[in-house]
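Sequence in, structure out.
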Amino acid sequence: MPAVVIVGAQWGDEGKGKATDLLGSRVDYVVKFNGGNNAGHTVVIGDQKYALHLLPSGILSPGCIPVIGNGVVVDLEVLFHEIDGLEERGIDTSRLVISANAHVIADYNRTLDKVNERFLGSRKIGTTGRGIGPTYADKMNRLGIRIQDLFDEKILRQKVEGALELKNQILTKVYNRRAASADEIVEELLSYVERLRPMVADTALVLHEALAADKTVLLEAGQATLLDVDHGTYPFVTSSSATTGGACTGSGIAPTAITRVIGIVKAYATRVGEGPFPTELFDDDGEQLRKNGAEFGTTTGRPRRCGWYDAPIARYAARINGVTDFVLTKLDVLTGWEQIPVCVAYDVDGERVDEMPMTQTGFHHAKPIYEFFPGWTEDISAARTFEDLPETAQAYVLALEGMSGARISTIGVGPDREQTIVRHDLL
């Protein structure tokens, strides 16, 4: 059976959690393959809302095995806090499996993340301050601590002490902060061992055997294409690979196993943190999008920057990820506008550019070139077929489909699981 990848096709917060949840009852495994607790998914089931930060969305689907892959960085305190919160609400989390090769966020990584961002001042990236970037930096510098290291206290202590030889110099001499204590770090990490041990496995092997046994594996990205460390709007990006390629390296699944790539796009666009955003709105329309769409971060609560749909970005995401199907979310948020602008190209220093500019400078200078589409005033939240939508809403969807590089297979018309229109099956 196939491995299916779900990726964000904008700057994140597109609704990947809902899309994963929609498919959760039809897949056997859901794998989080990148990121950490610096992003989140909100899933609404009936009158219950679940905010997930580190756990895969499949945790909410009975019978589905949720997996935290080797590409994830894990804050163990956050992990168990999230597990406890779900257990208190009657959600069974006993199926969770965590890769032995996933890296652990140590307390000094969180400290360095916060002081680094303060030090950058006006050049700040907009990090959440949760230690994600420094942990990935440790991974690449081969100073990282992995889940498996917690099960050998001697190795754990050696790695912590080795990391702190450099980091304490930075904390004390550059930032005038207190040095981190190796004893305290080791003690904290060891406190999670007994609870963690039953969850840990060679997840690459687990997933390989699952696919060989004709199981369906769904891989969900944290963040999104435009936040990918290689293909995003660098340097205003996350520290991991949030594209289809990252699904392979972050899970251990071979590229040849992937048969479908589902890109998630909002019917408009949002962004959190710093960085260029050509269609960003600073007027009443932007505020109305934020209000209608409840555009506040799941993890941070930060208000999201809002703007109109950007077709060149969608085409770029389709190309980078090999998107076979788009899920268009939050179409209902656009109800009430007389006209809806869509960015179809950019003006970069007086020249029309139809695709993502090659350089950071070009994208910073990009001004949107809009086409305008008639809006609608009807409440579409009860629509369950494409034909239920007003003709102008149908025309808007078809226009986006024609300029975005892949078919729009599913349309979200509200936050609830049932408020979905399926045009083409995603599995």
